[in-house]
Design brief:
7 strands; Helicase, Ruva Protein, domain 3; globular; single chain; Four Helix Bundle (Hemerythrin (Met), subunit A); two-stranded antiparallel sheet; alpha/beta; Rossmann fold; 20 helices
Amino acid sequence: MDRRLTEARNPRTRAIDRADSASIVHLIQAEDRAVPEAVASQAGTIARVVDDVVERFRHGGRLVYVGAGTSGRLGVLDAAECPPTFGVDPGLVRAVIAGGPGALLRSAEGAEDSRAGGAQAVRELGIESADLVLGIATSGTTPYVLGALGEAAALGAGTAFLGCTQPAPEVAELVDHLILPLVGPEVIAGSTRMKAGTATKLVLNTITTAAMVRGGRVYENLMVDLRARSAKLVDRGIRIFTTLTGASRAEARRALILTGGAVKTALAMRALGVDRALAERYLDCTDGFLALAIERFGDGGRPYYGGYPREPGWPDGAELLSRLGVAPARLAAAREAGAAADAAGRGVPARRTAWSPGRHAAHLADFERDAVRTRLEGWLAGSEAPPPVFDDWEGSEPSDVPFEAALEAFAAQRRASLAALPGVPGPALDAALARRARIGEETVTLYQFLRGVAQHDAAHESRMRERVHPALLAGEGA
């Protein structure tokens, strides 16, 4: 027999072929009871993986699963569950399975034998140093997974391996994290969809759930970051709102309509007594943690820009400029997402008076030219004129122009703004972002001002993406 633990014969089940149904069930369940203990033995390593994933998410990275057969399918399942559960972008947690999407429904076992295929899949995903690639191979030897991990490491990405047998020495040398819940031989030798599959599911559940909690996507133990995009999620969102606020279902429904189904934003609006734009800004200033936003901004002394120095988790200067730089591309992606939702009939725009994509882009172009860049240049030149408070900017109603033209205008204006700042991370950029000015009674840094600009970008991106599910518009109080 094979030397791999997952391929070994289980002495406790050698007579299973002559057992009756009750005995078979008992044997399987007896073996399954060993799985949680094996997973628990890896708690320290799993926690370190969670820490790594959280840090990479904060810097714009992704978690990418790579597997074949049952391992690949479990990775796809976990990745697919993250957007509806936690309201994250589908690109944040990705999964690659040997053989492609067709392997989800029909076995494509031969695809797992190609190291080159795994490496190619990683390249096609555009893996970068900010990402973490987690290879799943319960047997410890799947060539497709090893090829993917090798390519990810060569590209400078983080790497982790999840298996249920001791892998080859090359794997231990290759990866940053090694997760090995050794569940022992399977009930049926080599059938790793059983104990090994259960262990894999438990580990993946733990990694993504813990990372989302650490990312502020849970309040107490409620999934407040869900977006009400189906009848089931509409009902869950209403129940979460009523549970935490004591409001009626009709009040909860109206609150969620105002936020396009964003439960956490609706809760922040109610708890802080502010409008949607300000609630979103406060949540952004606390990295999405609802409890922290209520603690900091719920006492009546609410500085518009946040009023706090940069804290752990906030982007550093170079990351903030990168966030500003990719805003036009993210706006284009939001437009495509909104168009796809319309084509699929997934709800309606959040408000009957919702702007067209062209108006959003035109507004951002005008705002960048008139309310950001000119004040930014004056600030850097030493002018004592304070930068504007966003609500004081009186721009004209943007025209309903073609999106592509308006987007190019926005991109050009943003490039001009960023050109005014030192483009290389270092003391010059830090000094520029640390310059202070007064806004009303608050003294803010240029960093805080530009973070507010990034929040403004994100608000328009959200409006273009969001759709209200018909179930939210129906029923009592609609």
